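Per your request, structure below.
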């Protein structure tokens, strides 16, 4: 399936399309999460949180840019928010 079709199906909460997007982008996004996480398990948690945000906000994606870049920005922001919160909790 073409990426544009996958995005449109995700907007309709199609679980199969969400899984395909996850399979396509999780490797690269996980690498981005590892750059910000102190360990492997934390990076996995950040990745999970990232995909929750992606699927909740996919309606906000405009087709004028890179979908992967948009997802990577969400991953970085998710990681930064997570560690800012932890910093204040310690």
């Amino acid at each position: 399936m073409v990426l544009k079709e996958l995005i449109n199906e995700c907007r309709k909460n199609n679980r199969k399309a969400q899984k395909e997007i996850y399979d396509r982008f999780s490797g690269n996004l996980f690498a981005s999460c590892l750059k910000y996480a102190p360990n492997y398990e934390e990076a996995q948690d950040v990745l999970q949180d990232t995909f929750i945000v992606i699927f909740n906000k996919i309606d906000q994606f405009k087709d004028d840019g890179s979908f992967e870049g948009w997802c990577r920005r969400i991953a970085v922001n998710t990681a930064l928010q997570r560690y800012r919160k932890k910093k204040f909790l310690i």
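The radius of gyration is 13 Å.

Regards,
D.
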